[in-house]
Amino acid sequence: MAATRACLIMALAFLFLHGAAAGTAEERRRRQVQSLLRRLNKPPVASIQSPDGDIMDCVHISKQPAFDDPFLKNHTIQMRPSYYLGGLSNKSNITSHPISQTWHQNGKCPENTIPIRRTKEQDVLRSSSVSRYGKKSPKSIPKPIPIHDPEASVTSGHQHAVASSWQGQYYGTKMTINLWHPVTETTQDFSLAQLWITAGSYSGNDLNTIEAGWQVYPAMYGDASTRFFIYWTRDAYQTTGCYNLGCSGFIQTNNQIAIGGSISPYSSYGGSQYEFDILIWKDPQSGNWWLQFGSYLLGYWPSSLFSYLAESASSVMWGGEVFSSNTGQTSTQMGSGHFPGEWFGKAGYIRKIQVVDSSNNLQSPSGLGLIAQWPNCYNVQNGTDNNWGTYIFYGGPGRNANCP
Questions:
Q1: Which domain holds residue 50?
Q2: Which of 23, 158, 309, 352 is most buried, most CB within 10 Å of its CB?
Q3: Which of 26, 27, 151, 211 does the annotation list as catalytic?
Q4: pTM
Protein backbone atom coordinates (compact mmCIF):
# COMPACT_ATOMS: atom_id res chain seq x y z
CA MET A 1 0.00 0.00 0.00
CA ALA A 2 2.80 2.39 0.94
CA ALA A 3 4.58 1.63 -2.31
CA THR A 4 1.40 2.29 -4.28
CA ARG A 5 0.86 5.61 -2.48
CA ALA A 6 4.47 6.60 -3.20
CA CYS A 7 4.08 5.81 -6.89
CA LEU A 8 0.86 7.82 -7.02
CA ILE A 9 2.54 10.80 -5.40
CA MET A 10 5.43 10.60 -7.85
CA ALA A 11 3.05 10.37 -10.79
CA LEU A 12 1.09 13.39 -9.61
CA ALA A 13 4.30 15.32 -9.06
CA PHE A 14 5.48 14.46 -12.56
CA LEU A 15 2.18 15.61 -14.09
CA PHE A 16 2.27 18.81 -12.07
CA LEU A 17 5.83 19.62 -13.06
CA HIS A 18 5.22 18.67 -16.70
CA GLY A 19 2.09 20.86 -16.80
CA ALA A 20 3.94 23.73 -15.16
CA ALA A 21 6.78 23.44 -17.67
CA ALA A 22 4.32 23.35 -20.57
CA GLY A 23 2.48 26.33 -19.15
CA THR A 24 5.74 28.19 -18.70
CA ALA A 25 6.75 27.48 -22.32
CA GLU A 26 3.37 28.67 -23.56
CA GLU A 27 3.55 31.81 -21.43
CA ARG A 28 7.07 32.48 -22.68
CA ARG A 29 5.91 32.18 -26.29
CA ARG A 30 2.99 34.53 -25.62
CA ARG A 31 5.33 37.10 -24.09
CA GLN A 32 7.62 36.81 -27.12
CA VAL A 33 4.65 37.30 -29.44
CA GLN A 34 3.45 40.39 -27.56
CA SER A 35 6.96 41.84 -27.55
CA LEU A 36 7.19 41.35 -31.33
CA LEU A 37 3.77 42.91 -31.89
CA ARG A 38 4.72 45.98 -29.86
CA ARG A 39 7.82 46.37 -32.02
CA LEU A 40 6.06 45.85 -35.36
CA ASN A 41 2.82 47.75 -34.79
CA LYS A 42 3.82 51.38 -34.47
CA PRO A 43 1.34 53.94 -33.04
CA PRO A 44 -0.77 55.09 -36.01
CA VAL A 45 -1.93 58.55 -36.97
CA ALA A 46 -5.03 56.87 -38.42
CA SER A 47 -6.20 53.32 -39.18
CA ILE A 48 -8.22 51.97 -42.10
CA GLN A 49 -10.26 48.76 -41.94
CA SER A 50 -9.97 46.92 -45.25
CA PRO A 51 -12.91 44.87 -46.62
CA ASP A 52 -10.59 41.83 -46.75
CA GLY A 53 -10.02 41.91 -42.97
CA ASP A 54 -6.68 43.73 -42.95
CA ILE A 55 -6.13 46.80 -40.82
CA MET A 56 -3.87 49.40 -42.40
CA ASP A 57 -2.17 51.65 -39.86
CA CYS A 58 -1.08 55.03 -41.20
CA VAL A 59 2.24 55.51 -39.39
CA HIS A 60 4.27 58.71 -39.50
CA ILE A 61 7.06 58.27 -42.01
CA SER A 62 9.73 58.87 -39.35
CA LYS A 63 8.28 56.17 -37.03
CA GLN A 64 8.38 53.23 -39.45
CA PRO A 65 10.17 49.97 -38.48
CA ALA A 66 13.27 50.77 -40.57
CA PHE A 67 14.39 53.25 -37.93
CA ASP A 68 14.51 50.62 -35.19
CA ASP A 69 17.95 49.82 -36.59
CA PRO A 70 20.54 51.75 -34.55
CA PHE A 71 22.55 52.34 -37.73
CA LEU A 72 19.55 54.15 -39.27
CA LYS A 73 18.58 56.25 -36.24
CA ASN A 74 20.11 59.40 -37.73
CA HIS A 75 19.33 58.51 -41.33
CA THR A 76 17.98 61.37 -43.44
CA ILE A 77 15.07 60.10 -45.53
CA GLN A 78 15.66 60.45 -49.27
CA MET A 79 12.22 61.39 -50.60
CA ARG A 80 13.17 61.13 -54.28
CA PRO A 81 15.93 59.36 -56.18
CA SER A 82 18.58 61.57 -57.71
CA TYR A 83 18.25 59.86 -61.08
CA TYR A 84 15.38 58.40 -63.11
CA LEU A 85 16.27 55.76 -65.66
CA GLY A 86 15.57 56.82 -69.20
CA GLY A 87 13.32 59.66 -68.07
CA LEU A 88 11.11 57.41 -65.94
CA SER A 89 9.24 59.15 -63.14
CA ASN A 90 6.57 58.29 -60.62
CA LYS A 91 4.14 60.44 -62.65
CA SER A 92 3.96 57.98 -65.54
CA ASN A 93 1.31 55.27 -65.70
CA ILE A 94 2.60 52.51 -67.92
CA THR A 95 0.24 49.65 -66.99
CA SER A 96 -2.57 48.99 -69.43
CA HIS A 97 -4.76 47.33 -66.77
CA PRO A 98 -4.18 49.08 -63.44
CA ILE A 99 -3.83 47.01 -60.29
CA SER A 100 -5.50 48.23 -57.11
CA GLN A 101 -5.38 47.34 -53.40
CA THR A 102 -8.51 46.30 -51.52
CA TRP A 103 -8.04 48.70 -48.60
CA HIS A 104 -8.31 51.69 -50.96
CA GLN A 105 -12.08 51.14 -50.97
CA ASN A 106 -12.26 52.55 -47.43
CA GLY A 107 -9.80 55.43 -47.58
CA LYS A 108 -6.15 56.34 -47.86
CA CYS A 109 -3.37 57.44 -45.54
CA PRO A 110 -2.63 61.15 -45.07
CA GLU A 111 0.53 62.86 -46.26
CA ASN A 112 3.73 62.21 -44.28
CA THR A 113 2.49 58.76 -43.24
CA ILE A 114 2.90 55.31 -44.76
CA PRO A 115 0.39 52.41 -44.69
CA ILE A 116 1.56 49.39 -42.70
CA ARG A 117 -0.52 46.20 -42.55
CA ARG A 118 -1.13 45.56 -38.85
CA THR A 119 0.39 42.30 -37.62
CA LYS A 120 -2.04 40.29 -35.49
CA GLU A 121 -1.30 37.75 -32.78
CA GLN A 122 -2.64 34.88 -34.88
CA ASP A 123 -0.30 35.88 -37.73
CA VAL A 124 2.74 35.28 -35.51
CA LEU A 125 1.31 32.14 -33.90
CA ARG A 126 0.99 30.50 -37.33
CA SER A 127 4.76 30.79 -37.74
CA SER A 128 7.06 27.88 -36.84
CA SER A 129 8.68 30.13 -34.24
CA VAL A 130 8.45 33.74 -33.16
CA SER A 131 12.04 34.37 -34.25
CA ARG A 132 11.33 33.06 -37.79
CA TYR A 133 8.12 35.03 -38.32
CA GLY A 134 8.24 36.89 -41.62
CA LYS A 135 11.44 35.20 -42.78
CA LYS A 136 12.20 32.93 -45.72
CA SER A 137 14.05 29.65 -45.43
CA PRO A 138 17.61 29.39 -46.78
CA LYS A 139 16.54 27.41 -49.86
CA SER A 140 14.42 30.26 -51.24
CA ILE A 141 16.61 30.99 -54.24
CA PRO A 142 17.21 28.58 -57.14
CA LYS A 143 20.59 27.11 -57.85
CA PRO A 144 21.99 27.73 -61.36
CA ILE A 145 21.31 24.22 -62.68
CA PRO A 146 20.29 23.14 -66.21
CA ILE A 147 16.62 23.17 -67.13
CA HIS A 148 16.47 19.35 -67.41
CA ASP A 149 18.34 18.03 -64.39
CA PRO A 150 17.61 14.35 -63.57
CA GLU A 151 19.35 14.78 -60.21
CA ALA A 152 17.03 17.57 -59.05
CA SER A 153 15.01 16.84 -55.94
CA VAL A 154 11.87 18.21 -54.30
CA THR A 155 13.01 17.23 -50.80
CA SER A 156 13.88 20.84 -49.97
CA GLY A 157 10.26 21.81 -50.53
CA HIS A 158 11.18 24.66 -52.91
CA GLN A 159 10.70 24.42 -56.67
CA HIS A 160 11.39 27.07 -59.27
CA ALA A 161 10.73 27.92 -62.89
CA VAL A 162 12.84 30.98 -63.62
CA ALA A 163 15.09 32.76 -66.06
CA SER A 164 18.43 34.16 -64.94
CA SER A 165 21.20 36.42 -66.15
CA TRP A 166 24.66 35.93 -64.62
CA GLN A 167 26.91 37.84 -67.02
CA GLY A 168 28.38 41.04 -65.63
CA GLN A 169 27.45 43.62 -63.02
CA TYR A 170 23.88 44.75 -62.57
CA TYR A 171 22.40 47.89 -61.04
CA GLY A 172 18.74 47.03 -61.23
CA THR A 173 15.99 45.44 -63.29
CA LYS A 174 12.54 46.14 -64.66
CA MET A 175 9.73 43.75 -65.57
CA THR A 176 6.02 43.65 -66.43
CA ILE A 177 4.24 40.72 -64.76
CA ASN A 178 0.67 39.48 -64.96
CA LEU A 179 -1.27 38.77 -61.78
CA TRP A 180 -2.80 35.39 -60.90
CA HIS A 181 -4.49 33.70 -57.96
CA PRO A 182 -2.91 30.22 -57.69
CA VAL A 183 -4.38 27.60 -55.37
CA THR A 184 -2.15 26.11 -52.67
CA GLU A 185 -2.51 22.49 -51.57
CA THR A 186 -2.22 23.34 -47.86
CA THR A 187 -2.22 26.54 -45.82
CA GLN A 188 1.51 26.02 -45.22
CA ASP A 189 2.31 26.06 -48.95
CA PHE A 190 3.03 29.23 -50.88
CA SER A 191 3.14 30.23 -54.52
CA LEU A 192 4.82 33.36 -55.84
CA ALA A 193 6.21 35.15 -58.86
CA GLN A 194 9.05 37.58 -58.35
CA LEU A 195 12.40 39.02 -59.31
CA TRP A 196 15.66 38.43 -57.44
CA ILE A 197 18.65 40.81 -57.49
CA THR A 198 21.57 38.97 -55.92
CA ALA A 199 25.26 38.94 -55.06
CA GLY A 200 27.38 36.76 -52.77
CA SER A 201 26.81 33.06 -52.13
CA TYR A 202 25.27 30.43 -49.90
CA SER A 203 28.65 28.80 -49.32
CA GLY A 204 29.95 31.88 -47.57
CA ASN A 205 26.64 32.66 -45.83
CA ASP A 206 26.96 36.11 -47.39
CA LEU A 207 24.26 35.97 -50.08
CA ASN A 208 22.69 39.42 -50.57
CA THR A 209 19.24 39.64 -52.18
CA ILE A 210 16.62 42.24 -53.04
CA GLU A 211 13.28 40.72 -54.05
CA ALA A 212 9.81 41.86 -55.09
CA GLY A 213 6.71 40.33 -56.64
CA TRP A 214 3.35 38.81 -55.73
CA GLN A 215 2.53 35.80 -53.58
CA VAL A 216 -0.23 33.64 -52.11
CA TYR A 217 0.85 32.53 -48.63
CA PRO A 218 -1.97 31.57 -46.21
CA ALA A 219 0.35 30.75 -43.31
CA MET A 220 1.89 34.20 -43.52
CA TYR A 221 -1.22 36.32 -44.04
CA GLY A 222 -4.11 34.16 -42.82
CA ASP A 223 -5.91 34.09 -46.17
CA ALA A 224 -5.48 33.04 -49.81
CA SER A 225 -5.38 36.54 -51.30
CA THR A 226 -2.67 37.46 -53.79
CA ARG A 227 -0.42 40.11 -52.22
CA PHE A 228 2.39 42.40 -53.26
CA PHE A 229 5.56 41.65 -51.30
CA ILE A 230 9.22 42.56 -50.95
CA TYR A 231 12.15 40.83 -49.25
CA TRP A 232 15.84 41.31 -48.53
CA THR A 233 18.73 39.53 -46.80
CA ARG A 234 22.50 39.97 -46.56
CA ASP A 235 23.44 36.64 -44.92
CA ALA A 236 21.75 33.98 -47.07
CA TYR A 237 18.44 34.20 -45.16
CA GLN A 238 20.08 33.20 -41.88
CA THR A 239 19.23 36.04 -39.49
CA THR A 240 18.93 39.27 -41.49
CA GLY A 241 16.07 40.44 -43.66
CA CYS A 242 12.34 39.85 -43.75
CA TYR A 243 9.16 40.13 -45.76
CA ASN A 244 7.71 43.58 -46.32
CA LEU A 245 8.22 45.96 -43.37
CA GLY A 246 8.56 43.19 -40.77
CA CYS A 247 12.02 44.33 -39.67
CA SER A 248 14.40 47.25 -39.98
CA GLY A 249 15.45 47.66 -43.59
CA PHE A 250 13.28 49.02 -46.39
CA ILE A 251 12.40 52.71 -45.99
CA GLN A 252 8.98 53.54 -47.43
CA THR A 253 8.21 57.04 -48.66
CA ASN A 254 4.82 56.48 -50.32
CA ASN A 255 1.42 56.79 -48.60
CA GLN A 256 -0.59 55.01 -51.32
CA ILE A 257 0.59 51.39 -51.46
CA ALA A 258 0.63 48.97 -48.52
CA ILE A 259 3.47 46.49 -48.95
CA GLY A 260 2.01 43.12 -48.01
CA GLY A 261 -1.49 44.29 -48.94
CA SER A 262 -3.75 42.33 -51.29
CA ILE A 263 -3.81 43.32 -54.96
CA SER A 264 -6.38 42.75 -57.69
CA PRO A 265 -7.98 42.13 -60.16
CA TYR A 266 -6.57 38.76 -61.16
CA SER A 267 -5.96 37.59 -64.70
CA SER A 268 -8.43 34.97 -65.91
CA TYR A 269 -7.78 31.85 -67.97
CA GLY A 270 -8.69 32.69 -71.56
CA GLY A 271 -9.86 36.15 -70.49
CA SER A 272 -8.55 39.55 -69.42
CA GLN A 273 -4.93 39.79 -68.36
CA TYR A 274 -4.01 42.20 -65.57
CA GLU A 275 -0.41 43.20 -65.12
CA PHE A 276 1.87 45.69 -63.40
CA ASP A 277 5.47 46.88 -63.58
CA ILE A 278 8.19 46.51 -60.99
CA LEU A 279 11.34 48.57 -61.34
CA ILE A 280 14.30 48.43 -58.95
CA TRP A 281 17.45 50.43 -59.56
CA LYS A 282 20.48 51.69 -57.70
CA ASP A 283 20.68 55.45 -57.25
CA PRO A 284 24.15 56.39 -58.57
CA GLN A 285 24.55 59.19 -56.01
CA SER A 286 23.19 57.77 -52.73
CA GLY A 287 23.76 54.10 -53.59
CA ASN A 288 20.25 53.26 -52.32
CA TRP A 289 18.16 50.69 -54.18
CA TRP A 290 14.85 52.30 -55.21
CA LEU A 291 11.59 50.43 -55.78
CA GLN A 292 8.81 51.49 -58.14
CA PHE A 293 5.49 49.58 -58.26
CA GLY A 294 3.48 50.50 -61.35
CA SER A 295 3.46 54.30 -61.32
CA TYR A 296 4.16 54.51 -57.57
CA LEU A 297 7.62 55.27 -56.26
CA LEU A 298 7.55 53.35 -52.96
CA GLY A 299 10.91 53.87 -51.25
CA TYR A 300 14.31 52.25 -51.02
CA TRP A 301 16.66 49.77 -49.40
CA PRO A 302 19.59 51.77 -47.95
CA SER A 303 22.92 50.74 -49.39
CA SER A 304 24.24 50.32 -45.83
CA LEU A 305 22.07 47.22 -45.37
CA PHE A 306 24.29 45.21 -47.68
CA SER A 307 27.83 44.03 -48.27
CA TYR A 308 28.03 42.99 -51.96
CA LEU A 309 24.92 44.91 -53.02
CA ALA A 310 26.43 48.06 -51.59
CA GLU A 311 28.33 48.00 -54.91
CA SER A 312 26.39 46.01 -57.51
CA ALA A 313 24.60 42.71 -58.22
CA SER A 314 26.17 39.73 -59.94
CA SER A 315 22.92 38.08 -61.07
CA VAL A 316 19.25 38.80 -61.68
CA MET A 317 16.40 36.26 -61.89
CA TRP A 318 12.71 36.37 -62.81
CA GLY A 319 10.03 33.69 -62.46
CA GLY A 320 7.96 31.53 -60.15
CA GLU A 321 8.47 29.52 -56.98
CA VAL A 322 6.33 27.15 -54.93
CA PHE A 323 6.96 25.70 -51.51
CA SER A 324 5.43 22.73 -49.73
CA SER A 325 6.32 21.36 -46.32
CA ASN A 326 4.98 17.93 -47.30
CA THR A 327 7.26 15.16 -48.54
CA GLY A 328 7.17 14.63 -52.28
CA GLN A 329 5.42 16.59 -55.00
CA THR A 330 2.69 19.13 -54.27
CA SER A 331 -0.33 20.15 -56.31
CA THR A 332 0.18 23.81 -55.40
CA GLN A 333 -0.18 25.83 -58.59
CA MET A 334 2.52 28.12 -59.95
CA GLY A 335 1.42 31.16 -61.94
CA SER A 336 -1.93 30.36 -63.56
CA GLY A 337 -1.53 26.67 -62.76
CA HIS A 338 -0.97 25.97 -66.45
CA PHE A 339 2.21 25.20 -68.36
CA PRO A 340 4.05 27.94 -70.30
CA GLY A 341 3.32 26.25 -73.63
CA GLU A 342 -0.27 27.45 -73.42
CA TRP A 343 1.06 31.01 -73.86
CA PHE A 344 -0.77 34.33 -73.65
CA GLY A 345 -4.09 34.44 -71.82
CA LYS A 346 -3.56 31.05 -70.23
CA ALA A 347 -0.09 30.96 -68.67
CA GLY A 348 1.79 33.24 -66.32
CA TYR A 349 4.23 35.59 -68.03
CA ILE A 350 6.87 38.21 -67.33
CA ARG A 351 7.63 40.53 -70.25
CA LYS A 352 9.72 43.57 -71.08
CA ILE A 353 12.50 42.16 -68.93
CA GLN A 354 15.41 44.58 -68.72
CA VAL A 355 18.50 45.10 -66.58
CA VAL A 356 20.30 48.27 -65.55
CA ASP A 357 23.93 48.47 -66.67
CA SER A 358 26.88 50.37 -65.19
CA SER A 359 25.91 53.49 -67.20
CA ASN A 360 22.45 53.46 -65.57
CA ASN A 361 20.75 52.49 -68.80
CA LEU A 362 18.03 49.88 -69.21
CA GLN A 363 18.87 47.15 -71.71
CA SER A 364 17.80 43.60 -72.55
CA PRO A 365 19.63 40.91 -70.53
CA SER A 366 22.16 38.77 -72.34
CA GLY A 367 22.91 35.10 -71.90
CA LEU A 368 19.52 34.25 -70.40
CA GLY A 369 19.52 30.84 -68.69
CA LEU A 370 16.50 28.78 -67.66
CA ILE A 371 16.05 26.86 -64.40
CA ALA A 372 13.27 24.29 -63.91
CA GLN A 373 14.14 21.36 -61.65
CA TRP A 374 11.00 19.39 -62.54
CA PRO A 375 9.77 20.59 -65.97
CA ASN A 376 6.86 18.11 -66.00
CA CYS A 377 5.57 19.83 -62.85
CA TYR A 378 6.59 23.46 -63.40
CA ASN A 379 8.36 24.79 -66.45
CA VAL A 380 9.63 27.98 -68.11
CA GLN A 381 10.12 29.13 -71.71
CA ASN A 382 11.64 32.33 -73.03
CA GLY A 383 11.61 34.43 -76.17
CA THR A 384 12.14 37.88 -77.63
CA ASP A 385 10.12 40.08 -79.99
CA ASN A 386 9.74 43.75 -80.85
CA ASN A 387 6.58 44.25 -78.79
CA TRP A 388 7.30 42.23 -75.65
CA GLY A 389 11.07 42.55 -75.63
CA THR A 390 12.66 39.74 -73.61
CA TYR A 391 9.95 37.62 -71.99
CA ILE A 392 9.24 34.33 -70.26
CA PHE A 393 6.16 32.17 -69.76
CA TYR A 394 6.30 30.04 -66.63
CA GLY A 395 4.22 27.89 -64.28
CA GLY A 396 2.39 24.61 -63.98
CA PRO A 397 -0.03 22.54 -61.88
CA GLY A 398 2.51 20.61 -59.83
CA ARG A 399 1.43 17.01 -59.28
CA ASN A 400 -0.06 15.43 -62.41
CA ALA A 401 0.13 12.20 -64.44
CA ASN A 402 3.62 13.11 -65.73
CA CYS A 403 4.86 14.65 -62.49
CA PRO A 404 5.67 12.30 -59.59
A1: 45-80+117-143+155-396
A2: 309
A3: 211
A4: 0.89
